[in-house]
Amino acid sequence: MVDGGLFIAFEGPEGSGKSTQVRLLGERLSPLGIPLVVTREPGGTPIGEQVRTVLLDRTNCAMLAETEVLLYSAARAQHVGEVLQPALAAGAVVVCDRYVDSTLAYQGAGRGLPLASLAAVQRFATGGLVPDLRVLLDVPAGLGLGRRFAVPGEINRLDVADIAFHERVRGAYLAAAAADPSGWAVIDATGTIAEVADLVVAAVLPRVEQRSEHGARGGRTPTGRA
Question: Would you say the pTM of this structure is higher than 0.70?
Answer without folding.
Answer: yes
